[in-house]
Design brief:
Layout lengths: L2 E9 L9 E6 L22 E5 L2 E2 L21 H12 L3 E4 L5 E5 L2 E11 L5 E7 L11 E2 L3 H4 L3 H7 L4 E2 L1 E2 L4 H17 L15 E2 L4 H6 L4 H14 L6 H8 L2 E3 L7 E2 L5 E4 L2 E4 L7 E2 L3
Parallel strand pairs: 3-8, 11-17
Antiparallel strand pairs: 1-2, 1-7, 1-9, 2-3, 4-10, 5-6, 7-8, 12-16, 13-14, 13-17, 15-16
């Protein structure tokens, strides 16, 4: 599936970037209209919009979800590391943020780059591979490009995944050859489990014992998608996970696994709860979520 190549700049002042979300302004905002799919990118007055980095999921630094206020995953166990590495890789040498994670100053104020975009999600964020600097050779702004593994390996998506700072999280819009390569990259990072990576502290497969909301906001590193579901559930119903499988069934998220042709509905099929310990029964890179 071709992706739309768009040239522009990254500007982070007055935004809340994290390890898989950053703000981008196309040189020609009209190219947003050329993205496939039913969802549209939400644009500001300058034509810019938020990006969701395709194929990865970073620890949450400011998740709203249900209830008042925002919650986060352990900031010193990887949430800030992924964000800082993304901004540094893009070319921001100094970034100042407030208590609400909003950027108040950066050096430089903007950096040039490009994206390889495949569509937009339900929140109005552009789904993209994120590149820096000039356009790849033999390409032009606004062109539809058949993206190969080598092109993906030049992006922030691959960089963060190879460093083990983010989890792989694949949706059905990602071409199979790119997904398989990113899955291999994730496996290598998990095997290495270097200090500071999410894999060094990950409790997704080994099991996360929940005693309260602080278990996942301060103590344990888990897959962000699982964190979001747990954070919402705990704020609604309390720390007992007896009904968590039923809650997941009600969410009805659809996904595929390699050995089954038909899709599966409900994450309760790959999540177990025993004595208030929750774990994912599959490696996340084997799961392909259906994009809504």
């Amino acid at each position: 599936m071709p992706m739309l190549l768009i040239k522009g700049t990254y500007k982070i002042i007055d935004s809340q970037p994290d390890g898989d979300t950053v703000h981008f302004t196309p040189q020609d905002p009209g190219f947003w209209c050329d993205l496939p799919g039913k969802n549209r990118v939400k644009r500001n007055g300058h034509g810019g919009g938020a990006l969701r980095l395709d194929g990865i999921d970073a620890l949450e630094t400011h998740y709203q979800g249900v209830g008042p206020g925002v919650v986060n995953q352990p900031l010193e166990l990887g949430a800030h590391a992924a964000r800082d590495e993304l901004l540094n890789w893009l070319g921001f040498t100094s970034v100042t943020q407030g208590a609400d994670e909003k950027v108040t100053a950066s050096t430089p104020q903007t950096v040039p780059g490009y994206i390889l975009a495949s569509g937009a999600d339900t929140f109005g964020r552009c789904i993209a591979m994120v590149g820096r600097g000039p356009l790849p050779p033999d390409t032009k702004d606004g062109e539809r490009v058949n993206v190969d593994v080598n092109m993906v390996n030049q992006t922030a998506n691959h960089h963060l995944l190879s460093r083990g700072l983010v989890y792989p999280t694949f949706y059905s819009n990602l071409p199979k050859d790119l997904r398989l390569d990113m899955a291999d990259t994730a496996r290598q990072a998990r095997t290495a489990a270097v200090l500071g990576s999410v894999w060094a502290k990950d409790a997704t497969r080994s099991g996360a014992t929940i005693t309260g909301l602080s278990s996942i906001t301060s103590d344990l590193v888990i897959l962000p998608k699982l964190f979001r579901r747990l954070a919402d559930y705990i704020r609604l119903f309390g720390p007992s996970l007896n009904c968590f499988p039923a809650y997941l069934a009600g969410e009805g998220e659809e996904f595929h696994v390699p050995e089954q042709q038909d899709s599966i509905k409900g994450l309760q099929h790959i999540v177990t709860v025993t004595n208030n310990t929750v774990k994912l029964t599959r490696d996340i890179e084997d799961i392909v979520l259906v994009e809504k």
